[in-house]
Amino acid sequence: MRVIMDYFVNLGRKVIAALEKTGRGHMLFVKMVAGFDEILRRPSLLIRQLFYIGVLSVLLISLSGFFVGMVLGLQGFYTLSQFGAEASLGVMVAASLVRELGPVVTALLFAGRAGSALTAEIGLMKATEQLSGLEMMAVNPVRRVLTPRMFGGIVSMPLLAAMFSMFGVLGGWFVGVGLLGVDDGTYWSQMQGKIDLHEDIYNGVIKSVVFGVVCTWIALFEGFDSTPTSEGLSRATTRTVVHSAFAILGLDFILTAMMFGE
Amino acid sequence: MTQSRNLEFMVGIFVAAGIVALFFLALQVSNLGTVSAGEGYNVEARFDNIGGIKVKAPVTMAGVKVGQVTGITFDKETFEAVVTLNIDGQYDQIPDDTFAKIFTAGLLGEQYIGLDAGGSDLYLEEGGRLQLTQSALVLEEVIGQFLFSKAQEGAE
Q1: So what's the pLDDT on residue B6?
Q2: Does some domain include residue B13?
């Protein structure tokens, strides 16, 4: 009897804890967005975060994009040439990058590169009681510390995804046209004929904005909500990457179904 | 001071590069830089059967893309398909007795509308109509006709 009781107590405790955490996460999100006026008052806070979140990720994103594009060029060429359709290589590379790989891979890399750094930074600020210190000085840490990071992430993500797609298309061009001998004019003209500004590119940008919001939100919340010990910090960082990856891939499915499934 | 200027400079470069990448995608990768619908003029062609033509299918003359299909409707009185073609404004000297045919690019390729220039002195204008059309070749019908003629040969 006692065992069964314990089981239900445990179950209930876990559900309540999960609900509480979800609630704290949403409350934090609302507070971070509500702190938007802090950015208008001190733009330098946002610029600093754009540097740490965006500029420092450019090299990683551009190189990854170039390599992903080159792989798409190679794989696409070998598959398409079986049907004599090498001319469509440009379409294949551009469509897969702009619609899917650009936003998704950028977001995954972003979660690993910038997200984990944000969690560790905020978590350490909490563990060393810098956040409490700010509060003691009557400075709201959410508005002062978290909001600029949130918007830094939201602004950076679509720009990084666009760079990823651009370098990917160039990588595919380098392999397809440069190495495998697809016609240069066909590569671009087929691409321009098939890729639609609204349908493909806008939707890709919308996806990356959504991923930007979700990734930074998860990273900041995990840091802010972490147990202020070294173990808690390491767990929070891991959770950031894992939860971001799940959220990105799951949301990607939902967004794709909404945008492209008619 | 110089450090914060440096940082602002890098962020400026980052944002500019991101916007350049977006413009690159919009202009070089998508169809914005090429023939855009809306400009040019619309003409109408009626077909008995349009096969697999879809909106945005290319309209070509001598193999060069001169426009695209912008609308397909069904006329319930004549039972014909009414296809609206948007021709790029620079091709404003197409004779009004031009012949419109539906072709297939390659064996499995997409279908497109090919225009064969006529000999008239009058040119197509906005709202004009292509009188001479040839329907899409439907593979099943062709095979059916072939089998039918073979069967008749056998009967004789």
Answers
A1: 83
A2: yes
Pick the closest to residue A58 from A157, A146, A174 (CA basis).
A157
Reference B87, options B130, B120, B119; nearest CA is B130
Domain co-membership, B82 together with B20 = no
Residue B61 placed within a domain: yes
Number of independent structural domains in chain B: 2
pLDDT tens digit sequence for A91-121? 889 889 988 899 999 999 999 999 999 999 9
Residue B154 falls inside a structural domain: no
Tokens of B108: 């499995």
**B21 touches A: beta carbon within 8 Å:** yes
How far apart are the two ends of chain A, measured CA to CA in Å?
54
Contact A119, A222 (CB under 8 A): yes
CB distance A205–B29 less than 8 Å? no
Is A191 an 8 Å CB contact of chain B? yes
Q: Are B26 and A98 an interchain contact pair (Cβ–Cβ within 8 Å)?
A: no
Number of Cβ within 10 Å of residue A100's Cβ equals 15
Question: A129-154, pLDDT tens digit by residue?
Answer: 998 999 999 888 888 899 999 999 99
Q: Give, for A193, the enclosing helix (H) or strand (E).
A: helix A184-194
Subunit contact A188:B7, Cβ cutoff 8 A: no
Cα dihedral B112, B113, B116, B119, rounded to 10, equals -160
